[in-house]
Amino acid sequence: MFFNFVVEISRYIFVATLKVCSVSLISIILMTQARANPIPHWMQPCRGSLDSNRELPLQLLETILISDNELARQLGIKAGNVEDKATSVRDQMADERIQSTDLQDFLDENTTLPGFPDHRALNIRTRFIERLREDYRRVSVTAIFVEEMLADEEHSAYSPSYTSHFRHIESKIYPLLCQLKMAILNKGAQLPHISNDVMHTSLRNVDTHALRHMRDYRILKDIVRLFHSIQGDYGNIHAEDQVNVQVENR
């Protein structure tokens, strides 16, 4: 009995050590890519996370070692962080840039902007890996929209600037996108193909401050709804698994 216990502990330590080494290698690769490939952050979300989060290597290790239930819990928290920040910026923009209750009501209509992901919850029977892949796609597309908002804001003379607000939203998106990416790759699955063209040209080429502000408000509104849905999906998965564990332990 004791011998078997020692064997199991030794095996766990060996596997954990291999995975720690893998994470260290991943971190080195990510930082090398960051220097060698000046491409958009949404294509290398872990690179964007490294810039503001030095705890990333430990988080990558956790992604490799934790259960799907714990992964769902962590993803739900990160999605909630995006929702909270986007809600705050949306409400501030309504007060400072929209400045009309009637216009705000019009912009709050149910339809999403062309190209923006559907915010409706995924089917509860969706396999976990397919859920991860679909959410990677949806969060990547969100990052593309936010990237455009940020670029336009940085080149605008309008004051006060929302550059720091949009950057803060990005800082919440990339840790979630990075963890989704690492979870998908760790399970041996392929990342979905995503193109920068998903955001229509008509939404990029806005001629006036007023039109851009309305576009940005709609994007923020869609972000809030999407990440509320994502948070709810993973929260339900975690809660359901917890109930199943309690039933099994009775």
SSE topology:
Elements: H1 2-36, H2 45-52, H3 56-65, H4 68-98, H5 101-107, H6 128-154, H7 163-186, H8 201-204, H9 209-248
Helix pairs in contact: 1-2, 1-3, 2-7, 3-7, 4-7, 4-9, 6-7, 6-9
Question: What does this entry look like structurally?
Answer:
The structure is a single chain. This protein is mostly helical. It has one domain: Growth Hormone, Chain: A (Up-down Bundle), CATH 1.20.1250. Helices cover 74% and strands 0% of the residues. Helix 6 (128-154) packs antiparallel against helix 7 (163-186). The protein is globular. The model is unreliable at 5-9 and 12-16 (pLDDT under 50).
What is the residue-averaged pLDDT? 82
Strand content: under 5%
| Element-by-element helix/strand order | HHHHHHHHH
Q: Assign the CATH architecture.
A: Up-down Bundle
| Structural class by sheet pairing and helices | mainly alpha
User: N-to-C terminal Cα separation, in Å?
Assistant: 26 Å
Helix content: over 70%
Mind summarizing the main beta sheet?
none
Number of strands: 0
Number of distinct helices: 9
Low-confidence stretches: 5-9, 12-16
Query: What would the CATH topology be?
Result: Growth Hormone, Chain: A
Radius of gyration: 20 Å
What would you call the shape?
globular
The total number of structural domains is: 1
